Amino acid sequence: MSVSYAAVGWNRQKKIYDWLIAGFCVLYLLTFVVLTAIFNPDYTFETVLIRSTSTLAILLLHIILSIGPLARLNKKFLPLLYNRRHLGVTMFCIAAVHGIFSILQFHTLGNVNPFVSLFTSNTNFNSVASFPFQSLGFFALIILFLMAITSHDFWLHNLSPKIWKTLHMFVYLAYLLIVMHVMLGVIQYETHPVFVILISLGAVWLIALHLIAGTKEVRKDNHKFIAAPDGFVYVSEANKFEEGRAKIFCIDKERIAVYKHENKLYAIHNVCKHQGGPLGEGKILDGCITCPWHGYQYLPHNGQSPPPFTEKVSVYEVRVSEGKVWLNPMPFPEGTERPGAMIN
Amino acid sequence: MIKQLRKRHLQIWALWAVLIPVGMIVALIAVPKKVTQELLQKVAPASTYHTIASVDKENYKINILAPNSVTIKHPTGWEYDLKIEFINKKESSTDSFLLYKVIDFTDNNIDKQELLGRIESKSTQEFRLKFFDLRVTNNKFDYRDKFLLYDIMKKEIVDSINFNQ
Known about the structure:
The complex is a heterodimer. Chain A is of the alpha+beta class.
């Protein structure tokens, strides 16, 4: 969270995280090269580089796509969510090495522009076995490139969170293209079943994870709340709240986060102004509600970011009566001061 | 996150849960059947292939065949294999010959080369070339791989085939 843009907002945790990513990537590539040298010594350096970077990029993509649903299913994964962008940019760089060397190796030996060759050397679009799978990988790489260059907050603010988020959801299309790039490419001539097994396991894992996390939320969102004549709805027992944490309630299609802080309950709109992150899945740090995605902070009693920041979210009225928590789903204007409801 | 966004995530993955398995199954069904015996392959229909390099000797002729999609403009790609075609001109002239592709140019030891298969006494045979060195030089195909004919009875290399001459 900042009032100005910096190239990368590194802190100690991010540095450790980035070193871990770099170390893992180097270790993976070295292991791949050594194993290839032992078991397939005939392979050229270019082939080893193309294969090692492709498998590493796909592995990283699976990790990236797992972080979101894992964090929704278990809060222990939230720290990974904070740093997902760094992993995404790393993954793009590795995928780019794969793409560039593939084009160099397979499309620069003739007298045609390599990019023209990429799209015209194989036009068997009506064949599955001979489908021009390289073009699928190319389009996936373009999506990853656009995501990587817009991963900074500068673009988030200038494109608006809605457009930015829509653009970054194209990663799912990139994943689909990559799966088919593999299935119509290496799988068509690689005799060893390990590639099919790995890509299938990856797909099953990601699909299951996203569907489980998604349906869990739908069930919560579909819970019906009945409003009392004064507009308040009963949402929960007061003793169900954990200090510094929130419960999320979806009332009239709007998600509201109710936080417990210093034995009082505060209700704010669940959507962070930064990227639309789920404020109710974060926690209170230094007296502020902290978004689990990128650490944007809001004061519980008025929904305002602490000075000098200017972000504001709506707040709601909470009432505790006889151990029961009641919530009025009509929002106050963003930044309105509201005292918390004391838990008896 | 706003509810609509989460809903869109779920809708996309529900769609992917159908599309990805279907795509994978279709791709797996389309995988070309592997030839179990690679040393003695039947001659494939030639109509989809054309000759890009050739060496004509007294007793035999050797052609390098590429799919028709391989042209001067698009000499390479990893979607296909090339084939080497061995045409025997005289019966029993090559009874005990093995065809090797040279992969170690620094060593004449035949064991260091890649065995493509046995040459039959009278026939036309084809061997698949998964890895090859094909380029375009001066608007002509420039096929650079080298091959050896090895007589297994005499234990000696009887001929060296080089297309780049």
